[in-house]
Amino acid sequence: MTSIEEPVQKGLRPVRAEADDTVEVRFTVNGTPVVLDLPARVTLADALRDHLGLTGTHVGCEHGVCGMCTVLVDGEAARACLLFACQLDGAEVVTVEGLGRPDDLHPLQESFGRNHALQCGFCTPGFLLSAYDLLNNEPEVTDEELPAELSGVICRCTGYRNILTAVSETRAAYPEGIPEPGNCARRTLVGRSGGRSATVAEEHAEPSDEPARTVEIVLPEGEPTIAVQVDTALDVPFDEVWRVLADVHVLAGCLPGAELTEELGEQLYAGRAQVAVGPIKLSFHGIARVLEQDRETGTIRVLAEGQDTGGARTQADITLRASATAAGTDLRADAAVYLTGRIAQFGRALAGDISRRMFEQFAESVRQVATTGEAPQQSHAAPSAFRMVVATLVDRIKRIGRRRGGE
Amino acid sequence: MKAAPFAYARPAALSDAVAELVNADGGGKVIAGGQSLVPVLAMRLARPTTLVDINAVTGLDALRAVGDRLEVGATVRQRRVEHALESAQVPLLRLALPWVGHRELRSRGTVCGSLAHADPAAELPAVACCLDAELRLAGPDGERTVRAREFYAGAMTTALRPEDVLVAVSFPVAGPREGFGFAEIARRHGDFALAGVAAHVRADDAGDVSAATMTAFGVSDRPVTRDVTGLVRATGGDRSELVGALDDVVRELVDTDGDAHASNGYRRRLLRALAAREVAKAHRRAVRGTAEVGA
Ligand SMILES: Cc1cc2nc3c(=O)[nH]c(=O)nc-3n(C[C@H](O)[C@@H](O)[C@H](O)COP(=O)(O)OP(=O)(O)OC[C@H]3O[C@@H](n4cnc5c(N)ncnc54)[C@H](O)[C@@H]3O)c2cc1C
Ligand code: FES
Ligand code: FES
């Protein structure tokens, strides 16, 4: 008679680890292959959040009841708190970060927004992935069955009516099956707890015997964490400004907390930068490559990459454009900044404010140097970063106060 | 809370899995889907020294018909059984599976894991008892087979010894003149049952009832099975008559004290109503002569 023998879970390798050993796990998260070395008792939820910096997967009860941690494992919804990460060798995991992009949300996300299906949003990632699994694997589900089928996730804000409407609408809009997760691509994942975790980027991996500095800076494929654009009008002639931009040493000196330590040739530079935000102190070591330096257009484009000992990583694609005006020079900075690991926790808005302030300070330094012809005075102990944060917060509080005040 | 540290073994052969359990000297625990075990570990209600993950063991993931029985291997997920063509031959299993927790748990939870866990309010042990399923166990002295009705010794207590692995369970495939019923009452979908029942009726070619069985769960420390052939014959399978006829059986089956969720008397009322309805359904289906699942 019939006999279906499915192969043993793809890639599940035999292992044995003592209680104080770690276990190597190779799996794919949102299209990115990762290798983690973890104690066996670390759950998938904790591995995603702490070791890969993917904090979209929420944790509520940690024993399978609330559904907050629901992710897709090999295409089916599963509780990330009821799986030890080491059990997932060879598996394919999709989290809410993989579902859609900020500028191109998955239809389910769109529908949740449109239908007010999220209030505090804590349950939303779990509901989205539970709903995705349902519509993808059981598209014949009826409206009457939806409440029972979605009862595996609890919403404390009790937004169930709108959640059901959002899922029902999405199903109706895609009778032939809902679109696949739209944000699965290779990207850098670095955890908050640092140390042992790593991302494999096979195509870009450098042979281990070569020094890291010969590596190309490869920006992640996904959306940047923050996009910054700062325009500053400088009361200094273009030629003076360009003199600053043309000298990478002087330029670096204008960046708050940054320091150029080595010139590696071929427009590649090594350096370090320090940022202190509240209780978090980050000390980045990194490299930067000047891709373009064109006096005609007044443009300089730099790719930079830095890694903190704690496992935080930042990458940026920065373009500075100087153009002559009647009053002096317009300096425009465009930066796409990718944050992973601990720093990604700041949240977009605050991280964006901080980056913007850094560029404003930078522009001010450029103005000073261009005016006085002297290297900017700054310590590398990063007190400026602290002041920056305080100023950012004060600004925000003022703004909120103004809004409350009815302006 | 997080699980306390444990040694982790994921062997590729059944004999190695048993050897790991033997070496752990009582401190070992099998993990299949983890959907019952991980919460227990997270709450530190259990602190096994070694977890033996059986998911890489070859041969345990088979779902297949063997003669007139359907065999479900130890690592076959509940959700796979729910949708597999093969399992349509065991309608009671298909009727019961949607009641087991939620989709998100069934994608990892296994049929055998639920049988081994032996929660008194779980659905699958009741199904196994009602159908007189056979469980295949492997231990240090080889394999042995235990009938489901003899497997359960009490709440979370089974014939499994600490060094045993439940290899597979086999259910009899339904014939054309067999009918089934399954229902439970829980506080919300996906919760464990306050009271539940699985029913099986077999008729002969003339349409006369030749066997009728019901298994109650959630009302005792283990699933309890009774032969109700005489009652079904006497009532002609009529639902309203069955309510009264089943009264004595129900009274005897419900032996839990009341708890926060339901009193003993409430559980009896629930079970009486459910049993009459599901036995009547099973009877109707059997007499009609198709082993179909639909009403
Ligand atoms: C929120 C929630 C709701 C739930 N609701 C229900 C419900 O309504 N009904 C229900 O029945 N269950 C429910 N469950 C429990 C679970 O989903 C069950 O399906 C099942 O008990 C788990 O199977 P598993 O494969 O995950 O077993 P595991 O968790 O891996 O193991 C459970 C136990 O069985 C042992 N074991 C497992 N496999 C074997 C084997 N092959 N040999 C020897 N020992 C073995 C383990 O050592 C452990 O003691 C629920 C769980 C949660 C978290
Ligand atoms: S955190 Fe996983 S189900 Fe609640
Ligand atoms: S939106 Fe707040 S918990 Fe659901």
- Look up the CATH topology of the largest domain in chain A: Ubiquitin-like (UB roll)
The topology string of helices and strands of chain B comes to EHEHEEEHHHHHEEHEEEEEEEHHHH
The percent range for helix content of chain A is 25-40%
What structural category do the secondary elements of chain B indicate?
Answer: alpha+beta
Structural class by helix and strand composition of chain A: alpha+beta
Low-confidence stretches of chain B: none
- CATH superfamily caption of the largest domain in chain A: Beta-grasp domain
CATH classification class of the largest domain in chain A = Alpha Beta
Q: Order of strands in the sheet with the most strands of chain B?
A: 4-5-10-6-7
Offer a concise description of the structure.
Chain B: Keywords: FAD, Flavoprotein, Oxidoreductase. Chain A is of the alpha+beta class and 407 residues long. Chain A has helices at residues 44-51, 96-99, 107-114, 124-137, 146-149, 160-173, 238-246, 248-253, 348-372, 383-404; strands at 3-5, 15-17, 23-29, 32-38, 70-73, 76-79, 92-94, 198-199, 226-234, 258-265, 268-277, 280-294, 299-308, 313-324, 329-340.
Structure, described:
The complex is a heterodimer of chains A (407) and B (295). By secondary structure, chain A is α+β, with helices and mostly antiparallel strands. Chain A has two domains: 22-173, Ubiquitin-like (UB roll) (Roll), CATH 3.10.20.30; 226-375, Alpha-D-Glucose-1,6-Bisphosphate, Chain A, domain 4. Chain A contains ten helices and 15 strands. In chain A, strands 9-15-14-13-12-11-10 form a seven-stranded antiparallel beta sheet. In chain A, α3 crosses α6, α7 crosses α9 and α9 crosses α10 (383-404). Chain A is elongated and about 70 Å long. The N and C termini of chain A lie far apart (77 Å). Chain B is an alpha+beta fold and 295 residues long. Chain B has three domains: 7-53, Uridine Diphospho-n-acetylenolpyruvylglucosamine Reductase, domain 2; 63-172, Uridine Diphospho-n-acetylenolpyruvylglucosamine Reductase, domain 3; 179-288, Enolase-like, domain 1 (2-Layer Sandwich), CATH 3.30.390.50. The longest helix of chain B has 25 residues, at 264-288. Chain B has a five-stranded antiparallel beta sheet with strand order 4-5-10-6-7. A four-stranded antiparallel beta sheet of chain B has the order 11-12-13-14, sandwiched between helices. Chain B is built from twelve helices and 14 strands. Helix content of chain B is 33%, strand content 26%. The interface between A and B is large, with 50 and 48 residues. β1 (3-5) of chain A pairs antiparallel with β4 (62-66) of chain B, so a sheet runs across the interface.
